[in-house]
Design brief:
By secondary structure, this protein is α+β, with helices and mostly antiparallel strands. The protein folds into three domains: 60 residues, OB fold (Dihydrolipoamide Acetyltransferase, E2P); 75 residues, DNA polymerase, domain 1, CATH 1.10.150; 48 residues. 46% of the residues lie in helices and 20% in strands. A hairpin with a 3-residue loop joins strand 1 and strand 2.
């Protein structure tokens, strides 16, 4: 079993990354919200991983925090939720947002994620509500560098038409002073993107 991978970020796609580890390049599917926090290509990255074998083909899923990995694994126990839907939930809501939506029984928030209908959202809540105490994700997003402010920032920049690569580069160059607001981060990001 592969439980973690550390290596150089070689390439980034819409929902995957390639890491070069000891001369071997591995591809892992990663939540979009976490891809944005990995830094530029060539940077050192560590992913907590989940290996799935499907039709005799290994598929690797990667996460920037142990808590996000555990939450992904918990979602896999829900009937009708496979790895792609689990990844979509984490991409759309982040670890903290997903945990909160389940704990609060917010099926509307869950069904707002692409691929999740009302019935699936209700099933996720029904099957996982009691299990959220065993998954400590309260700080998962901040540990992975994707604080709630980054989630909002990513959403705004995406709605403005910027690509994932542009957003990722802008996030990597932000001044992370604790007294800055989301508006300050947006201003910095737009200046960075405009300067390229």
């Amino acid at each position: 079993m592969i439980v973690g991978v550390s290596g150089l970020l070689k390439a980034v796609g819409e929902d995957w990354v390639q890491l070069t580890v000891g001369g071997v390049t591995l591809q892992a599917f990663v939540p979009v919200s976490e891809i944005m926090t990995l830094g530029p290509e060539g940077s050192q990255v560590h992913l907590f991983t989940h290996l799935r074998i499907r039709d005799e083909h290994p598929i690797l899923y990667g996460f920037t925090s142990q808590a996000a990995l555990e939450l992904f694994q918990v979602t896999q126990g829900v009937s009708g939720v496979g790895p792609r839907l689990g990844l979509a939930l984490l991409s759309g809501l982040g670890a903290t947002g997903l945990q909160q939506a389940i704990a609060l029984g917010d099926s509307a928030k869950l069904s707002g994620v692409s691929g999740v209908g009302r019935r699936t959202a209700e099933r996720i809540i029904l099957e996982l509500k009691g299990k959220m105490d065993s998954v400590e994700v309260a700080d998962a997003d901040s540990v992975s560098g994707s604080a709630s402010g980054d989630g909002e920032l990513i959403e705004v920049l995406t709605s403005m038409g910027y690509t994932n690569a542009e957003i990722r580069r802008a996030l990597a160059s932000l001044d992370r002073s604790p007294d800055l607001t989301i508006e300050d981060y947006l201003r910095q990001a737009l200046q960075q993107i405009g300067g390229w």
